[in-house]
Amino acid sequence: MTSSTAFAFAGTAPPTSSTTTPPTTSGPPSACESYYTSACGKSGAALKSALNSIIRTQTKLSYDQVWDALKVTDQDPSNSNNVILLYSGRSQAKSTNGGGANDWNREHVWAKSHGDFGTATGPGTDIHHLRPEDVSVNATRGNLDFDNGGNAVPEATGSRYDSDSFEPRAAVKGDVARMIFYMAVRYQGGDGFADLELNDQVSNGSEPKMGRLSVLKAWSAADPPDAFEKNRNQVIFDRYQKNRNPFIDHPEWVSSIWP
């Protein structure tokens, strides 16, 4: 995000209220200590498997609980009453969540039809890839894969779409890519859900696949994790799911797993 995401977060761990500034964090663990110990020194398929074993240990939320969680994870650092919408970049009142045309709702960045997991507890409620977004913008994105090009998206300046793909605004392209990478590592078919995989295609439909891989890799490289994204990862770990997105902590692991 061009402005709000550049702010540092201050204060201590927030109480239950979702209008309190998210906590200051001590920073992510390094590759070879603490959380990522078993991934140290690995690459390729071995790294992917090790990361899956680490991040699959998590606290799962209900779909209703996601509403309140997003009011904390995506809080506007400049206005504790608001959240920042992912594709739109707009700061909007937390209280306006719902189904109306100008409300915000829960966007599944890995489209829930790609693997047919719906809103079931698990991938359907995993807040590492669920973000607040304007209802109409969310509808425009639908279940499109990610790629460059297309027509301008109303209410989401800098985002574009066409019949088979969606391109988010530049400031969150890397965020989107790293959420997709997380999902492909976290959900590998071993816990009752589909094996989510990346490919270099669009129009994946209901297949448990998402593309375009080459574009997502380029987006991640061009838009590295910023303060907002790092803080979000830490808040999810500390307060909600107790697992992390490894590609926010270590973006270099993208090219190791998907060379």
Structure characterization notes:
This protein has 259 residues and is of the alpha+beta class. The protein has one domain (40-257). 30% of the residues lie in helices and 15% in strands. The protein has helices spanning 44-55, 63-73, 135-141, 173-186, 213-222, 227-240, 246-249, 253-257, and strands at 75-76, 79-84, 91-93, 104-108, 130-134, 145-146, 151-153, 156-161, 165-167, 197-198, 209-210. Helix 4 (173-186) crosses helix 5. Mean pLDDT is 90; it is low at 1-26. It comes from Lentzea sokolovensis. Pfam families: Endonuclease_1 (PF04231). GO terms for molecular function: endonuclease activity.
Q: What's the rounded overall pLDDT mean?
A: 90
The Rg value, from CA coordinates, equals: 17 Å
Kindly estimate the percentage of residues that lie in beta strands according to DSSP.
Answer: 15-25%
Helix content: 25-40%
Distance between the termini: 27 Å
Q: How many individual helices?
A: 8
Coarse shape = globular
Count of discrete structural domains: 1
* Category from helices, strands and their pairing: alpha+beta
Biggest sheet features: 4 strands, mixed
Summarize this, please?
With 259 residues, the chain is α+β, with helices and mostly antiparallel strands.
Structural key phrases:
single chain; 259 residues; three-stranded antiparallel beta sheet; disordered N terminus
